[in-house]
Amino acid sequence: MDLRQLTYFRAVATLGGFRRAAEELRIAQPAISEQIRRLEAELGTTLFDRSTRPVALTPAGERLLTHANRLLSEAAAVLEDMRGFATERSTLRVGTLQYLTLLDIPEVLSRFGAAHAGIELNVTVGNTGELEALLLRGDLDVVIVHTEGGVPGDRLTGEPWRREEVAVAVSLEHPLSGREDVAVQELADARFVTSRVGGLIRETFRARARAVGFDPEVAFEASDVATTLSLVGRDLGVAIVPRSVQALHADNVVVLPLRSTTALDVCLLRDAHRTPTPAIEAFMGFMAKTGSNAPSSGAR
């Protein structure tokens, strides 16, 4: 078994077929099929159910995919680490929550780049669920995401960067706009502008809403906070948002604290099963010096 076979195996597993994997990797389909057959022969088990379309992983294949993701991620880290010695430059792939790119993250990344000229930054934007999936797949080195109650799971490790209060954004025409704060149950009849599935604020608010007897009605699903606040400003719905977005001063929008809700952590996470490169260690250390454990209610 070698890394090439694991690369082919993961491509077939994630793309759902040999043809699509061949196209993605730009190699002949028979070459992939032959390597998968050799891998199955060496392991003494079938990895794919080829009777289905798309092909499906067997239980053994599901287990191997977990190992393959870890091994390929570690191999990529080794290669990147060694390239750093050869070229005195390395690449750090950072994932961050979208709304933070409108607040303090650009300045923080600029300061890091100035202090570490040998590290090239590649930045990916997404929500918590999307970024954690990319991290565990080995496509990112470090992510800045929301967590609730500390670092999640055994595969992830890291540190809280700061606290983030949860708030509700409403238009100035909304009946609640003059309030000092809002209780969750007061939003039972509201229509919501939400983030995509995978956003932790969306998921935690839904759980709290259901706990008090209602399921939030989604009017719009937006991929970025600027669109969310624009829709709210036109009184097309309310939105559950990080309280720090009030620093954006969106037109015709007021951001109000949500009563009796738990603040989330903004955490810096990496894959615990992967040896951190010097670039990862440098970034984690730098971010630890810039963070704050105080709840965030505005721009930092």
Description of the structure:
It is a single chain. The chain has 300 residues and is of the alpha/beta class. β3, α5 and β4 form a beta-alpha-beta unit. A six-stranded mixed β-sheet has the order 4-3-5-13-6-14, with helices on both faces. It has a four-stranded mixed β-sheet with strand order 8-12-7-11. Residues 293-300 have low confidence and may be disordered. It is globular, with a radius of gyration of 22 Å. α1 packs across α3 and α1 crosses α4. The protein is built from nine helices and 14 strands. The chain folds into three domains: 3-69, Winged helix-like DNA-binding domain superfamily/Winged helix DNA-binding domain (Arc Repressor Mutant, subunit A, Orthogonal Bundle), CATH 1.10.10.10; 89-162 and 265-296, Periplasmic binding protein-like II (D-Maltodextrin-Binding Protein, domain 2, 3-Layer(aba) Sandwich), CATH 3.40.190.10; 166-262, D-Maltodextrin-Binding Protein, domain 2. It starts with a helix and ends with a strand. InterPro entries: LysR_HTH_N, LysR_subst-bd, WH-like_DNA-bd_sf, WH_DNA-bd_sf. Belongs to the LysR transcriptional regulatory family. Residues 1-58 form the HTH lysR-type domain. One of its GO terms (cellular component) is protein-DNA complex. GO terms for molecular function: DNA binding; DNA-binding transcription factor activity.
